[in-house]
Amino acid sequence: MHSKILVSACLMGQAVRYDGRAKPLLHPAIETWRAEGRLVTICPEMSAGMKVPRPPAEIGNAATGEDVLAGKARVVELTGADVTEEFLQAAENAVALARQAGCRYALLIDGSPSCGSGFIYDGTFTGHKQAGNGVTAAALKAAGLEVFSDREIEHLIERIGQ
Predict the structure, then answer these.
(1) What is d(CA 99, CA 118) in angstroms, rounded to the nearest whole number?
(2) Which of 69, 97, 117, 162 has the highest Cβ tally under 10 A?
(3) Which is nearest to 37 in space by CA: 3, 70, 71, 80?
(4) pLDDT tens profile 20-33
(5) Exposed e or buried b for every residue in 77-105, given b needs 16+ CB within 10 A?
(6) Would you tell me how many other CB atoms lie within 10 Å of the CB of residue 36?
């Protein structure tokens, strides 16, 4: 039996990003995995009731998703609105879906305060990147999933042996 992969909905071409766009990941492996029924799609923010489009959000004070999960940091929108609870609910929903579906891996869009796993933005809304995990990526890792960014699809292919 093939291992299931939790995947960001925006990578599957769904227009669910904060700006109302998708960011489709075009790769032959995606089509193979889709045909095999291995992909489990989620937009964590939408699963928590967030709308599209919505203001951009970042984890404040150059913190990470792990910090948010530990109650040491907040997620805020460009407008100043605190959306930490929504991001925590989003992470909880993603972990629950991954467990329910039997996912061992996650393929997530990088840079997102939710799904980022290689980098996230530093909370200044100036485009500065930093190494770190978003809230959902951190929660999935803590739950035992192996998390890969969209830029790491080749590593995921190697890991699961396509």
Answers:
(1) 23
(2) 117
(3) 3
(4) 999 999 999 999 99
(5) beeeeebbebbbbbbbbbbebbeeeebeb
(6) 11
91, two tokens: 């992470």
> Rounded CA gap, 138 and 99, in Å?
15
* Tokens of residue 5, six digits: 């992969």
- CA separation for the pair 161, 114 (Å, rounded): 27
CA distance 27 to 18: 23
Cα–Cα distance, 5 to 20 (Å, whole number): 24
Average pLDDT value for the chain = 96
pTM, two decimal places? 0.97
C-alpha count within 13 angstroms, C-beta hemisphere, residue 79: 6
Residue whose entry in the numeric block shows the structure tokens 């190697």: 158
> Cα separation of 86 and 48, whole Å?
6
pLDDT classification of 2: cutoffs 50, 70, 90: confident
Structure tokens at 83: 């959306």
* Mean pLDDT along residues 111-131: 97
**Residues in CB range of 130: below 8 A, 6 or more apart:** 62, 119, 120, 121, 122
> What do you get for the CA distance between the two ends of the chain, in Å?
12
Task: Give the length of the chain.
Answer: 162
